[in-house]
Amino acid sequence: MSSLKSFAKMTNDLPVQDKKMPVLFMGHGSPMNGIEDNEFTRKWESIAKEITQPAAVLCISAHWLTRGTHVTAMNHPKTIHDFGGFPQELFQVQYPAPGDPALAAETSKLIQSTNVGLDHDWGLDHGCWSVVKRMYPEANIPVLQLSIDYHQPPGYHYQLAQELSALRKKGVLILGSGNMVHNLRMVDWQHFEVPNYGFDWAQEMNEKFKTYIYSKEHSRLINYTELGPAAKLAIPTPDHYYPLLYALALQDQKEEVEIFNDQYVAGSLTMTSVKIG
Fold first, then answer.
1. Distance between CA atoms of 14 and 21, rounded to whole angstroms?
2. 3-state secondary structure of 61
3. What is the C-alpha to C-alpha distance for residues 101 and 86, in angstroms, rounded to an integer?
4. pLDDT band at residue 232, thresholds of 50, 70 and 90?
5. Are 243 and 62 in contact (CB under 8 A)?
6. Rounded to the nearest 5°, which phi and psi values hold at 134?
7. Does residue 245 come out as left (phi exceeding 0), alpha (psi in the -120 to 50 range) or beta?
8. CB 139 within 8 A of CB 96
9. Model-wide pTM > 0.90
């Protein structure tokens, strides 16, 4: 088959739909959410029932940091257990969702600002499967991951994400997975089981983030380093924050947002999540 015919087949696999898919940012928290039944995971499950079943899921996870941008392009992505110190039950989890090489190629072509590599080595890390497994437990929907070029600034990621907007019209659920407030060094393990326990600085930043999300002041969120000392505590490294920017970049001006799972964990983490559209 010629390359032209291959491209035609690729683009026809996911026809344009009348309605855009929503966009999600999920605070994914502990890997244990992949197997535990709690208020956070129940909300993930209910969100999946509320929205149209996607043709595919494209996940931007805090746990795939690369030089350059890559998208998983294998037929059968492996389940990655990228953590330690958890029960054996968690390491035994497999999420055998199919991949979609054609969609990976289309995603690569959509992004014009940089060359996007087609990756055949990564798979689905826990930032992705711990959430998607709860949403679509039958593992019958193709799942891809787009990596985060960790050598680029926040504005770069926001602009790159905007190039993915056409996928929303093709039934692709774009899902950012991280945590808005994420400081593992300051986790208060003695209060890990205390519901909605957050340090003052975590509460300050969570409220600021929500204010700017509701008011669509995305420039404030892109320039988060200018939001004061609390921001440096909330985002000591941007790996878990960047997936939020990918989600917000895909918001149309008229689209409203829903914030859910808006709770603190162990003082220095938030599960605060966003649904757009």
1. 13
2. strand
3. 32
4. very high
5. yes
6. -75, -30
7. alpha
8. yes
9. yes
CA–CA dist 69, 75 (Å, integer) = 19
Question: What is the structure's pLDDT at 192?
Answer: 81
- Cα 87 to Cα 83, 93, 188, 189, 269, distances in angstroms: 11, 11, 20, 17, 21
Tell me what pLDDT residue 4 has: 34
Report the half-sphere exposure of 69 (CA within 13 A, side-chain side). Answer: 19
Structure tokens that stand for 199 in this block:
């340090």
Please give the mean pLDDT across all residues of the chain: 93
Structural contact between residues 119 and 64, judged by C-beta atoms closer than 8 angstroms: no
pLDDT tens profile 126-151: 999 999 999 999 999 999 999 999 99
Structural tokens at position 168: 């929303």
Superfamily of domain 20-276: LigB-like (3.40.830.10)
Alpha carbon distance 256, 121 (integer Å): 37
Contact 247, 25 (CB under 8 A): yes
All residues at 6 or more sequence positions from 225 whose CB lies less than 8 Å from its CB, including other chains: 231, 232
- Return the domain boundaries, the chain: 20-276
Express each pLDDT in 49-95 by its tens digit. 999 999 999 999 999 999 999 999 999 999 999 998 899 999 999 99
A 10 A CB-CB count for 52 gives 12
CA 187/CA 9 separation, integer angstroms: 49
In 3D, which of 252, 29, 63, 238 has the Cα closest to residue 146?
63
Cβ count near 119 (within 10 Å): 21
> CB of 133 within 8 A of CB of 36?
no
Can you give the three-state secondary structure of 13-32, one letter per residue? CCCCCCCCCCEEEEECCCHH
